[in-house]
Backbone:
């Protein structure tokens, strides 16, 4: 058999330093590649590529209410992705964020439907959001325990728990928590006013009057700053980063791998749970059986697209939210299926992963 | 309903439900034996299902729709292989990207044809054995695909345990650096494993749609791709154990349906959730046993660079 070390007469030489140029340009290239593929797909299905791209990317943000919707969609996505970046940096494959988001919604609902109306909005809301974060963290702690105690790969356990979470949601909204006055719909009662996130227009920012935009945006921004500082400046953040980059070195340095895994999973689970709580207390105002967050999986794309860095993740979340909302536009304007969103996310992720090659390696032709 | 009748329909239901899991699991087993973990199973199964639905609704030929499923699976596998083997990307996020692409692509393809019900698969009766009282109907009167799948599993077992090429695959999976020094082309072996494996995912999805459920729905695979990955771990990367595991998982699904038809007062969510919980429990037992860690292909999930990969 052949012993050539090259493929197609090219060889990949590792760079001494990751290429700065490539690491800045690759997200842009990935977006260009994805836009080209999107255009090609629209053309293949008989629609004009330019009209398609316009419907996908430009018309959603053409108005204040459009921008509000994009921001509303991006905020829980950003929260989840920021949390996942902590886990991925520590080389812990938490791909069950979707389940943790659902548990977050369940946790917030548990507080919301049992809290008295007389409770102050501030304390009720804080309690609900914290309960959501705790529930998400707890859901992620089960794979953490299985990994540290038994060595079970967390990739599979986090994922399988997503399906369990979906069934739990279904049972709660059709059984114990079903709204008795809800005409048998599989949903809980609407939350009291003291448990719905305040809108930005109600807080005085008139630009957003008439839109649904609420303070979830502020939470998303705050989380990006918090995690950036946490990973860059705190001892635990340092440990997580080192254990991801060089597990043996971190073991020699005395950083406990067990603590690292627990921290990575519970932190990312808590952020995902918080995101779910934010959505349930924000735009939904109740828990419904048919609630499919979706951004539990999209957050994985956002985290890698943002190269696990908080600032870029913010931007990626905005872009992915834009594509998501744009794809429903595409469906209405051009009659094409809205599944283009999942397809484009996959293509984006694949492009960024492939272009990453240029960052770490130099391509040389072998003679 | 008599007891034997219930038992027969349970057994048969288990075998039929196990079939897509078995095919997808076999594909993942082949891929993982060579050291590549392909998380794109779910997306590839969906594409296989959509393509088989398209072909079946045009041609009414089960054979062509299965072949189309295999071909589409192989194409997705080639894409995955290109990224993880030649472009040296990390296997886990690449697999997730393939799944996302598969979910989007399959939705598109499924919408190209009007929703319609497909003709059920023909059952093949094995001459003498199908006359046996209970097992006859359950085990020996199954669609042709069941026997093909069992034959493929047996071939895979024989391939990995008793052939030189199978040994090359196992060597690449356990230690690609040493395999390369011995003279095996690691990239080629991994490409073959990934593409053959992905062809099987496509077949699994194609059979699930055109041979089992008999209609198309968005995201109809509903997590079976992930179950197949768990199944491979459960089977300790051995094809014969894979058959037993697939049958067990299929039995769980069959019990779920049986309990509903018998009107048992169990919340439907509890029944739906059982396969996933059982998988988690089984994974825990497998990983807790010390001997299980010896079964894992030791280079599983690790990207191989011809010059840089170090001996593990």
Residues:
């Amino acid at each position: 058999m052949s012993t050539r070390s090259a493929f197609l007469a090219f060889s990949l030489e590792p760079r001494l330093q990751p290429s700065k140029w490539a690491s800045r340009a690759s997200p842009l290239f990935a977006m260009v590649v994805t836009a080209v593929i999107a255009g090609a797909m629209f053309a293949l299905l008989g629609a004009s590529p330019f009209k398609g791209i316009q419907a996908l990317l430009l018309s959603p943000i053409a108005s204040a209410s459009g921008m509000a919707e994009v921001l509303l969609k991006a905020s829980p996505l950003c929260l989840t992705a920021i949390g996942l970046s902590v886990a991925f940096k520590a080389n812990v494959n938490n791909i069950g964020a979707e389940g943790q988001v659902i548990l977050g919604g369940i946790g917030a609902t548990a507080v919301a439907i049992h809290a008295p109306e007389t409770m102050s909005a501030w304390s009720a809301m804080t309690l609900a959001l914290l309960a959501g974060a705790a529930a998400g963290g707890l859901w992620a702690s089960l794979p953490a325990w299985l990994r540290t105690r038994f060595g079970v790969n967390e990739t599979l356990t986090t994922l399988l728990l997503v399906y369990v979470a979906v069934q739990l949601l279904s049972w709660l909204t059709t059984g114990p928590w079903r709204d008795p006055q809800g005409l048998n719909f599989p949903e809980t009662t609407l939350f009291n006013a003291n448990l719905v996130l305040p809108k930005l227009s109600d807080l005085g920012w008139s630009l957003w009057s008439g839109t649904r935009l609420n303070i979830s945006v502020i939470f998303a921004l705050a989380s990006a700053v918090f995690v950036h500082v946490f990973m860059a400046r705190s001892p635990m953040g340092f440990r997580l980063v080192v254990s991801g980059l060089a597990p043996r070195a971190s073991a020699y340095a005395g950083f406990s791998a067990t603590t690292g895994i627990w921290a990575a999973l519970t932190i990312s689970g808590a952020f995902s749970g918080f995101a779910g709580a934010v959505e349930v207390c924000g735009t939904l105002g109740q828990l419904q059986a048919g609630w499919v967050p979706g951004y539990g999986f999209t957050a994985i794309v956002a985290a890698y697209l943002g190269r696990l860095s908080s600032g870029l993740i913010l931007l990626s979340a905005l872009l992915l939210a834009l594509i998501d909302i744009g794809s429903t536009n595409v469906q209405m304007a051009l009659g094409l299926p809205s599944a283009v969103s999942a397809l484009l996310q996959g293509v984006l992720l694949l492009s960024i992963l492939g272009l990453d090659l240029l960052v770490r390696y130099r391509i040389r032709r072998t003679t | 309903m008599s007891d034997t009748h219930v038992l027969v329909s349970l057994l048969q239901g288990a075998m039929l439900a196990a079939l897509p899991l078995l095919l997808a699991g076999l594909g993942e087993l082949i891929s993982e034996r060579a050291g590549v973990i392909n998380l794109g199973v779910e997306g590839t199964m969906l594409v296989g299902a959509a393509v088989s639905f398209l072909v079946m609704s045009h041609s009414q030929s089960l054979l062509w729709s299965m072949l189309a499923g295999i071909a589409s699976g192989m194409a997705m596998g080639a894409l995955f292989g290109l990224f993880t083997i030649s472009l040296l990307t990390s296997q886990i996020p690449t697999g997730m990207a393939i799944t996302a692409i598969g979910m989007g692509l399959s939705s598109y393809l499924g919408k190209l044809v009007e929703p319609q019900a497909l003709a059920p698969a023909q059952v093949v009766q094995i001459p003498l054995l199908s006359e046996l009282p209970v097992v006859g109907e359950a085990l020996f009167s199954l669609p042709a695909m069941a026997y093909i799948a069992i034959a493929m599993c047996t071939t895979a077992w024989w391939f990995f345990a008793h052939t030189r090429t199978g040994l090359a695959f196992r060597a690449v999976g356990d230690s690609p650096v040493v395999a390369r020094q011995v003279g095996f082309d690691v990239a080629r072996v991994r490409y073959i494993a990934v593409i053959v494996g992905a062809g099987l995912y496509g077949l699994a999805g194609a059979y699930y749609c055109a041979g089992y459920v008999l209609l198309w729905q968005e995201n109809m695979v509903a997590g079976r791709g992930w179950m197949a990955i768990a199944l491979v771990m459960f089977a300790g990367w051995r094809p014969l154990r894979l058959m037993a595991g697939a049958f067990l998982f299929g039995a769980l699904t069959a019990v779920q349906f049986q309990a509903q038809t018998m009107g048992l007062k169990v919340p439907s969510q509890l029944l739906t959730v059982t396969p996933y919980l059982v998988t988690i429990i089984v994974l825990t037992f497998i990983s807790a046993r010390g001997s299980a860690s010896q079964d894992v292909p030791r280079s599983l999930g690790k990207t191989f660079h011809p010059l840089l990969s170090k001996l593990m």
Summary: The CA atoms of residues 287 and 293 of chain B lie 7 Å apart.
